[in-house]
Amino acid sequence: MEMIAVTGWQLQEAKQRFSEVIRRASDEGPQIVTRHGEDVAVVLDIKEYRRLKGDIPDFNEFLLAGPDLNELEIVRSQDLPRPVELGD
């Protein structure tokens, strides 16, 4: 597993030097952006983002790729539900 150098940027500095943040994300690895001392964002090179994301379909594609439920023979019980006592 390779080590990735992570550089931190305060938000105001990242805004002022955005081109450099992008270049460093490409050349050096992820760039962490902080606001008031808290990590709030990561700038990644697009190749790294795509590698991490993988080939994940969106939710609509996922649902459409599922089995055809019309082929299932689903039989619903005709029994009445059991009685439930709710107390006083």
Helix and strand topology:
Layout: E1 7-10, H1 11-16, H2 18-27, E2 31-35, E3 38-43, H3 46-53, H4 59-64
Parallel strand pairs: 1-2
Antiparallel strand pairs: 2-3
Quickly list its features.
single chain; 88 residues; alpha+beta; YefM-like fold; 3-stranded mixed β-sheet; 4 helices; 34% helix; 17% strand
Helical stretch tally: 4
Helix content: 25-40%
Strand order of the largest sheet: 1-2-3
Whole-angstrom Rg: 26 Å
Any idea what the shape is? elongated
Question: If you had to describe this structure to a student in words, what would you say it looks like?
Answer:
With about 90 residues, this protein is of the alpha+beta class. It has a domain at about 5-65: 3-Layer(aba) Sandwich (YefM-like fold), CATH 3.40.1620. About 35% of the residues lie in helices and about 15% in strands. It has a three-stranded mixed sheet. Strand 2 and strand 3 (about 40-45) form a beta hairpin. The longest helix is centred in the first third of the chain and has 10 residues, at about 20-25. It starts with 6 loop residues before the first strand and ends in a 24-residue tail after the last helix. The model has no long low-confidence stretch (mean pLDDT about 90).
Q: Briefly, what is this?
A:
The protein has 88 residues and is of the alpha+beta class.
